Amino acid sequence: MGRRRYALALLCVAGFMVILDAQIVLLALPSVTAGLGLSADGAQWVMSAYLLTFGGLLLLGGRTADLLGRRRVFMTGTLLFGLSSLLCGLAWTGSVLVAARAVQGVSAAVMAPSALSLLVSTFAEGPERNRALAVWSGSGGFGATAALLIGGPLTDVLGWRWVFFLNVPVALALLALTPALLSESRSAERARSYDPAGALTATAALVACVYAVVQAPTAGWLSVRTSGLLAAAVVLAALFLRAEAGSPAPLVPLSLLRARTVSGGNLVVFLLGASAFGMSYTLSRYGQGVLGYSPLLFGLCNVVMPLGAVVGSYAGQALVTRVGARPVAVGGLALVGTGSLLLSRIPVDGGFVRDLLPGLLLFGPGLGACAVAGSIAALTGVGARESGVASGINTAAFQIGGAFGVAVVTSVALSHTGGPGPAGLTAGYRAGFTACALLATAGLACATALLGASRRRGAVRAVAVTRRRVRS
After folding, report:
1. CA distance 337 to 291
2. I need a labelling partner for 302 at 20 to 30 A (CA). Which of 23, 67, 288, 328 fits?
3. Cβ–Cβ < 8 Å for 333, 366
């Protein structure tokens, strides 16, 4: 058990680094925009380039980990993540930074699902895995907290480039410790097919959909460009499903998606990610663009939300074990939606304690509890041979949801902005927070409808899976 604890700690550091990078870049985004002369759309693509490649290729990353070896793929992704972070820090133009962020997303798509798959294969389904997943989710909350605490001083004192350089020594430490703490594991399948057609069509469908949403405020929601891009996304998604149905070794086995807990859990996580990333992006723009907070002050003020997410993740895993995933997911999304609605009332001359703190106190615990409940539901009943791709789907759901949420909230905020001054910007940000509340409401409806298995049925299924693993 001692070695497994150290292995869990190492895997959580990897998850910590991925979340740290996403949040710390969000905090430094105004400084990056000013330093490289990016437009509003260009600044949004510093986030979206990472999220699109990360989310779009996570399924292929999980499949590759299953077939080539999870520890080997984890180390490869970690090495590439460190190198791409170095390139981001050295970027001399906005285009170079966006391209480097895309490469960084590819490396995270290789590293993250292999790490989660190693966790799933190490801990047996049930309370033991639930606790491990809570620690995993909690490490993400600590990463977000550290980003807020570290990102401000780094950006103010050393400059925005150091938010990327920070990843390099962490990646080197992970590479040094992994061979000693993690054992190699892989699927028992003999045929090694990676289904590139599935990966390409899935990624292309995602890019078309998000790009349509991003461009809609300027092109028009009913314009030929927007309609054409959305139609292309639908066609590509259909091609993806057809490719999976006819592939001898599909990227995503359709039988896995037919499981109600898997599809429902991932849909809930998708909408949670959309609300969470959309809220964080809007809050950063409002705090630094309207209220004039420095990166350091903004980070210190908003530590309350990720800390609340850590508390929510630990409370959530205990509640899931007792009452099941659906009540926890519904309660968490209710808190997220209510917190977003409180934030949608922000004034032009807002104050942190009066206008931001109440919403963040609700949003953080709701985010943590729902993330754990959705992940537990999505990974329940998944066999060892499919743990990599299932982990990839679950991680992809949150990251793709994040890309979609940032695009939707950006589009809504731009559509409702009344002018370049603080009053006009605040009107747009109010609409953005309202959009986050609507995304959370949609997630709540999905959780209510799809996560209907009772605790007893889930426990019986967990025992059956455990017995099959023992016999194998």
Report:
1. 23
2. 328
3. yes
How many helical (H) and strand (E) elements, i.e. helices and strands, does the chain have?
18, 0
Name the residue with tokens 């539901």.
377
- Cβ partners under 8 Å of residue 346, min gap 6: 286, 355, 356, 426, 429, 430, 433
Residue 249 has pLDDT above 90, yes or no: no
CA angle at 4 for the pair 6 and 106, rounded to the nearest 5°: 70
Helix-strand-coil percent breakdown of the chain, rounded to 5? 85, 0, 15
Q: What is the DSSP letter of 381?
A: T
Q: Is the pTM here over 0.90, yes or no?
A: no
Which CA distances in Å does 190 have to 68, 130, 186? 11, 31, 11
Distances in whole angstroms, Cα of residue 158 to Cα of each of 152, 153, 170, 338: 10, 8, 18, 37
Q: CA–CA separation, 317 vs 90, rounded Å?
A: 41
Residue corresponding to tokens 């294969």? 121
* Sign, CA torsion 401/403/409/412: negative
Give the position of tokens 């032009």.
348
Q: What is the pLDDT of residues 346-401, one digit of tens each?
A: 999 888 889 999 999 999 999 989 988 988 888 776 665 666 667 767 777 887 78
Question: Closest Cα to residue 442, out of 394, 395, 401?
Answer: 401
